[in-house]
Amino acid sequence: MADRPLIDHDYKTPLEYANTPNMDRLAKGGLVGLMDPIGPGIRPGSDVANLALLGYDPAKYYTGRGALEALGAGLKLSPTDVAFRCNFATVNDDFRVEDRRAGRIRKGASKLAKAVDEIKVESTPGVKTTFKSTVEHRAVLVLRGEKLSRNVSDVDPKEDGMKIRIARASDGSEEGKRTAAAVNEFVKRSHEVLREHPLNQERAKDGEKVANIVLPRGAGTVPTLPSFKSMFDLQGSCISGTALIKGIATAAGLEVIDVRGATGGLKTDYEAKAKAVIEGAKDKNFVFLHVKAPDIAGHDGDFKAKVRTIEEVDSLVGMVIDEVDIGLNYVALASDHATPVGYGTHTGDPVPVVIGGPDVPASRLLKLSEATASRGNLGRIKGTDLMPIITDFVGRSRLYGS
Amino acid sequence: MADRPLIDHDYKTPLEYANTPNMDRLAKGGLVGLMDPIGPGIRPGSDVANLALLGYDPAKYYTGRGALEALGAGLKLSPTDVAFRCNFATVNDDFRVEDRRAGRIRKGASKLAKAVDEIKVESTPGVKTTFKSTVEHRAVLVLRGEKLSRNVSDVDPKEDGMKIRIARASDGSEEGKRTAAAVNEFVKRSHEVLREHPLNQERAKDGEKVANIVLPRGAGTVPTLPSFKSMFDLQGSCISGTALIKGIATAAGLEVIDVRGATGGLKTDYEAKAKAVIEGAKDKNFVFLHVKAPDIAGHDGDFKAKVRTIEEVDSLVGMVIDEVDIGLNYVALASDHATPVGYGTHTGDPVPVVIGGPDVPASRLLKLSEATASRGNLGRIKGTDLMPIITDFVGRSRLYGS
To answer: DSSP code of B168?
Structure first.
């Protein structure tokens, strides 16, 4: 949601431009401030930002994104498994990337994944691979076996027109080299399997981009997180359409609630999500709701879409605070990071944060925005501060000292 | 002093409700902000909060409360001693606590303490005990001997109606077990000694609660603090009515000034304290003054008493800033933590902080409160930040780097 003022929109941010009566209502009666997801100027990935929001210091707990994605995709991981985020992509005969999302392939991805899942890597005895497609062109790869390491570089060059990279041991270790060898063989084999696949021959015939290779990135192992319950004395659940957030929630021991229509995309069912929050609040005392849409609009550089998604999130906030009595319960609202439409990528800006509920000092602000939040009554906090503050308001904080 | 807005007092806090012309004067011309004693949302005990205020990071220096209390009670401790805070309490034959303050016993506590001090524990050879009463039902116990540990749990259940607890080694160590055994025997022996004591027989006859047991809690060893002088280049003294604060000051190498009438209670002699500050400022360049009263009113949940004690503190502030020329000297004012009357316990809220003196930017606020402080010119700092800021203003900070 957070953004920067735009010269071609009267120096307003999308949040300032949007009509957000419900967020404004929450902000007026609550604590409002700025929050650095990690620290001032630190540009966070969604993984570390959401770990921090849930109270887990990434400096202590972050072990790579891949395993969080794999957990979120419903795979079971052992502590020694190394997992990767993957894209189905289109490469030419020179292994130059024509489209790192293979035309955002939708149909047939799971069939292609089945073929890829049958690959057996031979260069590294004892290593087994599991491959599963998730949303559109996205998938996860898990390497299982002895002496593997998450210290391997990405195969995905993360830019169209570049050649794919050879995975390497980023720490020079034997385990890293062994893992890199397995990944490189897997990528080569994925090309062999996919380019012959009938589904791709059909796509080619229809003038569609072929999904003729798998590009892994973001090697990771499962983080050892103390349970959310043990940290904050709260029984929690998580509602999200994205595998990463589900994976973080799973690693933290939150119950992942699957909501039909929660897509993790631009179009998601806000009403279904709001209902799930209200329903979840009945048998849990903490519900973590994540909406991906404004981030996508930011990545797309689409001001209008960002304003629209913010207004849709506002309607969701309205549904929640109308049903959840904030004279008795607490509702906190924050971006996990800024994705300014003028940049199309995450930036290190602080984000607005609001905490509403009983006995919370009222900011008396009339409108929630990046600018008003910078003058709010909460001051400037860090992502990892949010859960301790909430825990203290709900009366479940432990005394430090005596 | 710090609190939360109260619904039955026009959403005002006691500080907002109180008439505080002197604090307001200090605030208007000084730096004003919010201070997290430890960190946002962290609920501090008085021990860690005051260590932090004096510039000692509790994460680095805190070794339990008991030894600080014992130091404050005037006992000399060696680094291997383990000390406990204790209450005289009333238990029934089942060791269920009827009153963990033995009717807030005043008279005769030192006589009872003398009898308890003569106890010799036999289960743990080589361990000697020292016992001393302090204020009302409060006392300290010191175990001296080899192979003792502060990792032992509390005997005091901290709630009336509960059975007393058996002390245990919280880390499972041999030293912990040995210490726990000594504590448990001491508690048992204290019951034997006290229930037969003539003073208790008198109390029973008079219908008063008998002080028939001693309940230790908060095991601690003396922290190894670098001297306050070495940290901030300031020669300091401390004025306080409470053993804990005196103990922290002693451990930091501050001179403890005993002020007749400084009780550490709701009624304390504010004028005597103010005079001691002014007197102390003559041959020292730092005076730490602690007032306990607003905290007690907060624990009692007594809004009126809290407003009154804040107004009394305000008059003290007036006496100090009228005498200490703040065109030449610095006066800082802060709560060590919040004790909201609606909660009756410490919370993790940030507290208002003010720094007045030469060349300090003026906040121009008209009234000191939690809300105005949240928009003050100091921003949001941590407890351990206060001494470095003061040290820098007085021109005694060391250059970092070169």
So the answer is: -
> What pLDDT digit, counting tens, does each position of A49-69 carry?
999 999 999 999 999 999 999
Instruction: Write down the pTM of the prediction.
Output: 0.93
For residues A330 and A358, give the distance between their C-alpha atoms in angstroms, rounded to a whole number: 7
Residues of A with CB under 8 A from a CB of B: 359-362, 375-382, 385, 387-392, 395, 397-402
Alpha helices per DSSP H over B63-206: 66-72, 109-117, 174-195, 198-205
Looking up tokens 């041999």, which residue turns up? B174
Kindly identify which residue of chain A lies nearest to residue B69, measuring between CA atoms: A402
- DSSP bridge partners of B332: B355
Instruction: Give the separation between CA B279 and CA B255, rounded to whole angstroms.
Output: 13
CB contact under 8 A, A359 and B374: no
From chain B, the residues in CB contact with A360 under 8 A are 4
How far is B218 from B225, CA to CA, in rounded Å?
19
Alpha carbon distances (Å) from A378 to A318, A385, B87? 22, 11, 39
Q: Are B115 and B193 in contact (CB under 8 A)?
A: yes
Please report the ipTM that was assigned to this predicted complex.
0.91
Chain B CB contacts of A387 under 8 Å are 41
Measured CA to CA in angstroms, residue A85 lies from A121, A218, B80, B254 at distances of 18, 6, 54, 58
pLDDT for residue B312:
97
What's the distance, Cα to Cα, between the start and end of chain A in Å?
Answer: 40
Residues belonging to chain B with any Cβ–Cβ distance to chain A shorter than 8 Å: 4-5, 7, 11, 34, 38-49, 58, 62, 64-65, 85, 217-218, 340, 342-343, 346-350, 370-371, 374-375, 379-380
Min Cα–Cα distance to chain B from A239, Å: 25
Residue A361 has its nearest CB partner, among B5, B46, B343, at B5
Pick the closest to residue B181 from B207, B206, B149, B203 (CA basis): B149
Structure confidence at residue B2 (pLDDT): 98
Distance of CA A332 to the CA centre of its chain: 18
Question: In whole angstroms, what is the distance from residue A208 CA to residue A195 CA?
Answer: 13
Instruction: Provide CB contacts within 8 A for A52, sequence distance 6+.
Output: A37, A38, A44, A58, A382, A383, A384
Distance (Å, rounded) from C-alpha A52 to C-alpha A50? 5
> What is the Cα B206 distance to its own chain's centre?
33
User: How many residues would you count in chain B?
Assistant: 402
Return mean pLDDT, chain B: 96
Q: List pLDDT tens digits, range B119-147.
A: 999 989 999 999 999 988 999 999 999 99
